[in-house]
Amino acid sequence: MPIRIGTSEDDGTFHSQGRALKVVLDRQPSLAPVEVVTADTASVENANRLNADQISFGFMASNWIGRAKNGEPPFKSPIDIRMAAPMNAGPLFFIVRAGSPIRSVADLRGRRVVLGPERSGMVQHAHTMFGVIGLAFSEFTPVYLDFETGADALARGEVDAQLQCPIPNKVMTALSEQCDVHVLPYAPGQLEKLLGAVSFYRRVVMPKGAFRGLDADVAQPGVVNILATHARVPDATVRDAVAAIVANTAELGQLNPLFAGLADLFEPLKTDGAKALEFGGVSLHPGAARAYREAGLLAA
User: Fold this and answer.
1) Is 55 left (phi over 0), alpha (psi -120 to 50) or beta?
2) Does residue 119 or residue 151 have the better pLDDT?
3) E-strand stretches of the chain
4) N or C: which end of the chain has fewer CB within 10 A?
């Protein structure tokens, strides 16, 4: 049956990954034609659309999937959501203009910080990160703008910093060409504290030269982004989609650099079993489990 994939705002990272995924999945007769659907609030909107049977798969940050399963805010009731596949692990980072007196994430106190649309997953990340390092929302001015509008505001000096989504992304590249930028490191001990407190973050190193102005490797928290589905989606549909993803990790990395290293995200299945991908206590869809067993990634 044809499938619909929920992504993010137009030209957001999930949307760009969704377009690459369409190239691979459209070759599967059981899945084609694949429709890539935009979603202004990304993870939350995609979970709600899965619940409403409006999409078959949805991109989500792994911090949201457990909330959706349990019906925790902003979700109004539990959603029978299932894990399909990891998509990437990418850095979440704060960017300022070069020459700014803000030199670390701890210096954002009292500043104007663009976090993303108010109901977006990026704002949830901000709550999580600031909660761990001890920076209350009342201690700075949160600004709720989409990525492109927020980047323009930073370039014009109307805000002091922006929380950016995983690179490579077009908005960050354009911003770095528009003005000189600086990635904020964490104060000593803060990144380790954050990674120790939050299970869905991983340590990710942003490599020197990834965009103009990134003059040295910088360690940041990285979130594992995933492709979710719903319990009602047929096993055969999920099996065919996941099998195509596993078989085409190299091509996906060529189509979109965000997929680079995708194969590595499946490896923990071999040692830890299904729980390696069951973020927030959300079970693997039976169709996904079948695909992983057939690929030799999951024990029978």
Assistant:
1) beta
2) 151
3) 4-6, 35-37, 57-61, 81-91, 93-97, 112-114, 141-143, 161-164, 181-183, 201-206, 218-230
4) C
Q: How far apart are CA 12 and CA 27, in angstroms?
A: 24
* 183-213 burial: b if 16+ Cβ within 10 Å, else e: bbbbeeebbeebbeebebbbebebeeebbeb
Residue 150's Cα: distance from chain center in Å?
Answer: 18
Query: 43-52, pLDDT tens digit by residue?
Result: 999 999 999 9
The residue type at 106: A
pTM for this predicted structure: 0.77
Give all domains of the chain, ordered by start, each with its CATH number. 4-89+224-294 (3.40.190.10), 91-223 (3.40.190.10)
Q: Does the structure show a pLDDT above 80 at 216?
A: yes
**Does a cis peptide bond (omega within 30 degrees of 0) precede residue 168?**
yes
Alpha carbons 15 and 251: distance in angstroms, whole number: 17
- Kindly state the tokens that stand for 79: 């959603």
With tokens 């979700």, the residue in question is 75
Query: Can you tell me the mean pLDDT for 46-62?
Result: 97
Q: How far is Cα 251 from Cα 233, in angstroms, rounded to an integer?
A: 26
Give the DSSP letter string of 8-52. Answer: -STTSHHHHHHHHHHHHHTT-TTTPSPEEE--TTTHHHHHHHHHT
